[in-house]
C-alpha cells in the first residue's frame, strides 16, 4: 500500500518511521526542509508538495499542528485535494476542531474522496514505540480500510463514531488532563507552603478521591515520578502551547454548543500566561513552576 504522509514533525516523524518498518511505501511532504530530510533518512521518498505526495497514493495521512494548517494542507495551493485521486481515503491524525474535520470531509466528498479523523494520545514516546491510542471518527468501512496503517502506528484503535467524533474524544480527554495538571499544581503548592512532604501527599492522594492519571504518570513536582517531564527539566512530553490549543478547542466547542464552562477557560488562561512567560515549548506540567508563591508573601 502506498501512503502519502504530510507533516513529518515531532509526532509525524516517528509515526512515518513505523509505517516504513511495517513495509508501507511512504512518500512524505513537510513545509520545513529539515523535517522532510529526517523523513527521507527514515526511508521515505520526498515530495515537493502535499499534492505531489498524494498523487498515486492509496492512503493520505496528515499530522499537522492545528485546524488552519489542516485546511491549508488539504485545500491550499499544492494541497492534498489537488493530487489525491477520486475514491481514495484521507486520514487526519492532527488534534483539531471537530467542526473543521467535518468541513474538510464535506469538501473532499464533493471530489469523491473519503475522510476520517484519527487523533492520537500517548505523546512522542507512544509515537516512537507505536503504542499510540488512536480515536477514530468516520464510516466503519473507511476505518477498516485504514486499520492496517493505524495498527502500524498505534496499539489501541477505537472507533468513536462518525467524522469528527475522534476529535471530540480527544478534546474531552485533554480538557480533563489540562485542568487536572493545573489542579494538581495548585494542590502541591499549598502542601509545600505548609511544609508537608510532597511524596507523602502523593501517596495519600493516590489512594484517595483526588487521584488522577496526571499526578500518577506526569507529576508536575520534580523528583516524584522517575520518567515524568518535571523530573527531566520539563522537556516535553506535551508542550504547554499544544495543551493551551487543545483546552482552547474544548472551550470553543462549548461556546458553539452554548454550554457554560468555568474551569476549562480558567485553565486555558493559566497555560496562555505560562506560555507568554516563556514556558510555551516546555512540557505543560511546567505550569507548576509558574504557580509559585509571590516573593512578597504578606497575606492581605
Ligand atoms: P509539530 O509542529 O512538531 O509537527 C507538525 C509538522 O507539520 C511540522 O513539521 C510542520 O512543518 C508541518 N506543517 C505545517 N503546515 C504544513 C503544511 N501546510 N504542509 C506540510 N507540512 C506542514 O507538531 P507535533 O507535535 O508533531 O503535533 C502534531 C499534532 O499532533 C498536533 O495537532 C498535536 O496537538 C497532536 N499531538 C501531539 C502530541 C505531542 O506529544 N507532540 C501528542 C498527541 C497529539
> Order of strands across the widest beta sheet?
3-2-1-4-5-6
Contiguous low-pLDDT stretches (5 residues minimum) are none
Mean pLDDT: 96
How much beta, percentage-wise? 5-15%
Q: What do you see in this structure?
A:
Helix content is 51%, strand content 13%. Strands 3-2-1-4-5-6 form a six-stranded parallel beta sheet, with helices on both faces. It has 300 residues and is of the alpha/beta class. α9 (165-193) packs across α13 (263-279) and α12 (240-257) runs antiparallel to α13. α2 (33-41) links the parallel β2 and β3 (45-46). It binds nicotinamide-adenine-dinucleotide. Nicotinamide-adenine-dinucleotide binds at residues 6-12, 29-32, 35, 50, 63-65, 69, 72-73, 94-95, 120-121, 123-124, 238, 242.
Features:
300 residues, alpha/beta, three-stranded mixed sheet, 14 helices, 9 strands, 13% strand, binds nicotinamide-adenine-dinucleotide
Amino acid at each position: 500500500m502506498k501512503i502519502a504522509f504530510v507533516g513529518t514533525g515531532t509526532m509525524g516523524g516517528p509515526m512515518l518511521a513505523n509505517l516504513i518498518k511495517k513495509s508501507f511505501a511512504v512518500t512524505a511532504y513537510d513545509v520545513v526542509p529539515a523535517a522532510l530530510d529526517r523523513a527521507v533518512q527514515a526511508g521515505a521518498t520526498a515530495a515537493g508538495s502535499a499534492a505531489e505526495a498524494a498523487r498515486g497514493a492509496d492512503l493520505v495521512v496528515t499530522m499537522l499542528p492545528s485546524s488552519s494548517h489542516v485546511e491549508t494542507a488539504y485545500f491550499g495551493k499544492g494541497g492534498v485535494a489537488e493530487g489525491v485521486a477520486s475514491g481514495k481515503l484521507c486520514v487526519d491524525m492532527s488534534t483539531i476542531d471537530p467542526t473543521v474535520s467535518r468541513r474538510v470531509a464535506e469538501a473532499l466528498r464533493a471530489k469523491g474522496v473519503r475522510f476520517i479523523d484519527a487523533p492520537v494520545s500517548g505523546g512522542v514516546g507512544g509515537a516512537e514505540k507505536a503504542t499510540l491510542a488512536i480515536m477514530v471518527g468516520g464510516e466503519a468501512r473507511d476505518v477498516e480500510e485504514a486499520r492496517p496503517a493505524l495498527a502500524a502506528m498505534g496499539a489501541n484503535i477505537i472507533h468513536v463514531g462518525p467524522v469528527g467524533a475522534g476529535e471530540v474524544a480527544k478534546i474531552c480527554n485533554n480538557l480533563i488532563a489540562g485542568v487536572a495538571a493545573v489542579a494538581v499544581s495548585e494542590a502541591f503548592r499549598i502542601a509545600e507552603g505548609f511544609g508537608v512532604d510532597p511524596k507523602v501527599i502523593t501517596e495519600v492522594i493516590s489512594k484517595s478521591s483526588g487521584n488522577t492519571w496526571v499526578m500518577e504518570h506526569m507529576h508536575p513536582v520534580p523528583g516524584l515520578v522517575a520518567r515524568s517531564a518535571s523530573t527531566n527539566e520539563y522537556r516535553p512530553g506535551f508542550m504547554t502551547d499544544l495543551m493551551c490549543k487543545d483546552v482552547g478547542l474544548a472551550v470553543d466547542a462549548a461556546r458553539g454548543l452554548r454550554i457554560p464552562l468555568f474551569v476549562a477557560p480558567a485553565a486555558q488562561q493559566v497555560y496562555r500566561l505560562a506560555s507568554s512567560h516563556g514556558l510555551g515549548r516546555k512540557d505543560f506540567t511546567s505550569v507548576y513552576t509558574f504557580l509559585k508563591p509571590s516573593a512578597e508573601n504578606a497575606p492581605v
